[in-house]
Amino acid sequence: MGFFFYIKPTYFLSDKKINLQRVVTHVKKTRKLNEQIEIELKRLEREKDIKILYAVESGSRAWGFASTDSDWDVRFIYVHRPEWYLSIDDKRNNMEEILPNTIDLAGWELRKTLKLFRKSNPPLLEWLRSPLIYLEQFSTANKLRELTKDYFNPKSCIHHYLHMAEGNYRDYLQSDLVRVKKYFYVFRPILACKWIEQNNTMAPMEFQELVDSQITDRQLLEEIENLLERKKSGEELDREPRIQIINDFVESEIEHFNEVVKQYSNDIKPGTEKLDELFRSTLNEVWEEKIKSTKAQHDGNNPCGQSG
Is 228 left (phi over 0), alpha (psi -120 to 50) or beta? Predict the structure, then answer.
């Protein structure tokens, strides 16, 4: 499977007049950047002698509340050739590049990825559910999705999202004038906590799906939708009076989930066997021809299996 790009529609009509030219310009820019991202991923494969198994958009564009000038946060999983792993020394297991065209590239090596997956790492679980996929080749990402039910840890994920919500709320939203766009960075993790508590599964990445499924108060919903429309239209959401109905909701939910997280067991310790097998099968799948060639060369040089 080769490079492709999939994006769910994110334009919402309203009674306000839509600047068609602005939309067309944005779409053209998006297509150009998608092509650039594909070029950069291929470049990394060549320069680093790796295979990128999976590459997605993370951050506000994948969450569904990007503004017109939001960065492109590209996250990917990659694997080295088999001989890279045959060393007694630890090696760098991640790579990062920030490009001048607002593209932020960051990737995790497969073994690091699997170790984090074993811990039910929320950012990784989000990547596997991103609605914006730049590349998915080989079977690894899909197998990880299938294994999620065995390795998902609700306590770990609620703790992650609760910590995120508490930090942003404490730092940005408790004075009389607040940085309004930070409401999204408190609301989304709170709603993710609510989803996990309700469903005992990883929360969806898209903010709108979380809002639709978790918010029932009509006045609160109107405030959220208003902020969402303003942000996506490109309006600069700077300091404004805090929105008390949102603050009250957030404080109540933070208090609630600080109690909820205590109720989960600490005994969830999934095994490693399935992930070991996935690691080995990925190496075989990705580098099959290289492995066969190396084995044939070895057998040719040592036909009787002798050593020394």
Answer: alpha
State the first-to-last Cα distance of the chain, in angstroms, to the nearest integer.
43
Q: Is the separation of the CB atoms in 104 and 45 below 8 Å?
A: no
Dihedral class, residue 263 (left if φ above 0, else alpha if ψ from -120 to 50, else beta) = alpha
pLDDT of residue 208: 96
Token reading at 259: 């109690």
Alpha carbons 192 and 122: distance in angstroms, whole number: 10
User: 44 with 129, same domain?
Assistant: yes
Q: Are residues 221 and 124 in the same domain?
A: no
Number of domains comprising the chain: 2
Residue found by looking up tokens 């295979």 in the block: 51
**Residues paired with residue 95 on neighbouring β-strands, in sequence order:** 107
Those residues whose C-beta lies under 8 Å from the C-beta of residue 186, and which sit 6 or more positions away, are 165, 168, 169, 173, 250
Q: What was the pLDDT predicted at 290?
A: 63
Q: What is the mean predicted confidence (pLDDT) over 177-202?
A: 96
Question: At residue 154, does pLDDT exceed 60?
Answer: yes
* Residue 301 belongs to some domain of the structure: no
Measured in whole angstroms, the distance separating CA 276 from the mean position of its chain's CA atoms is 23
Q: Are residues 107 and 254 in the same domain?
A: no
Please classify residue 158 by burial: count the beta carbons closer than 10 Å to its beta carbon, then call 0-12 exposed, 13-18 middle and 19+ buried.
buried
Q: What single-letter amino acid sits at 20? A: L
Give the tens place of pLDDT for each residue, 104-149.
999 999 999 999 999 999 999 999 999 999 999 999 999 999 999 9
Same domain, yes or no, for 142 and 256? no
Same domain, 40 and 53: yes
The CATH number of whichever domain residue 92 belongs to comes to 3.30.460.10
Structural domain harbouring 197: 155-263
CA distance 73 to 63: 11
Residue 78 lies in a domain: yes
| Residue-wise pLDDT tens digits, 232-253 | 888 878 899 999 999 999 999 9
